[in-house]
């Protein structure tokens, strides 16, 4: 049985999606909510396998909830609902931790197929998105090779935060970083805020200026 949690900004849509999905013999909806805190509470205290999250949660809520779920419940899987299949949108959610997505024009059968595929550890993506993911993995590898940074040991910065920090050290603006990484400006702002907090500095210039010292310190550990 696949235990599912539905998160949508409109309670009515939550109810509709939950009712339809729960009719399947191998899928059980354990809850449907519209609030991030409620979603985390349900996911933390129930045996949830998979969370369906609307791509339109307010204030970057979709990205925030996906990050929280993956960081706090590593076994859980996330599917993003109602996105446009573009490199920018798909990569942003995948990098946040999503393991699948359903397009806004998709059918109910598409949704059910994706739920079962993700539960079984499979990925249903187009060749174009697959190519974009491979390219992004290659870019990460190049960044880490050049900087000798190991994400889990680098001030607890995530892979994406390390990449943003590297670009900060090049004095790029949020808009320039967003364009370079093919993500939203708001996402860059969130990453920069997290980086400053983790590094204990108040300004982006300070974080960027510390990058050479971080590289040297980490090189000494290898």
Properties at a glance:
222 residues, alpha/beta, Rossmann fold, five-stranded parallel sheet
Terminal-residue CA separation: 45 Å
* Unreliable segments of 5+ consecutive residues: 147-153
Mean pLDDT: 83
**Rounded Rg:** 19 Å
The number of helices is 10
Strand content is 5-15%
According to CATH, the fold-level topology of the largest domain is Rossmann fold
Number of domains: 2
Biggest beta sheet summary: 5 strands, parallel
Helical amount: 55-70%
The strand line-up of the biggest sheet is 2-1-3-4-5
Number of strands: 5
What does this structure look like?
- The chain is of the alpha/beta class and 222 residues long.
- It folds into two domains: 2-125, 3-Layer(aba) Sandwich (Rossmann fold), CATH 3.40.50.2300; 130-219, 3-Layer(aba) Sandwich (Rossmann fold).
- It has ten helices and five strands, in the order βαβαβαβαβαααααα.
- Helix 4 (87-96) links the parallel strand 4 and strand 5.
- The model is unreliable at 147-153 (pLDDT under 50).
Quick description:
This protein has 222 residues and is α/β, with parallel strands linked by helices.
Write the layout of secondary structure elements.
Blueprint: E1 2-7, H1 11-22, E2 27-33, H2 36-45, E3 50-54, H3 61-72, E4 77-83, H4 87-96, E5 100-103, H5 108-119, H6 127-147, H7 159-168, H8 174-181, H9 185-199, H10 204-219
Parallel strand pairs: 1-2, 1-3, 3-4, 4-5
Helix pairs in contact: 2-3, 7-9, 7-10, 8-9
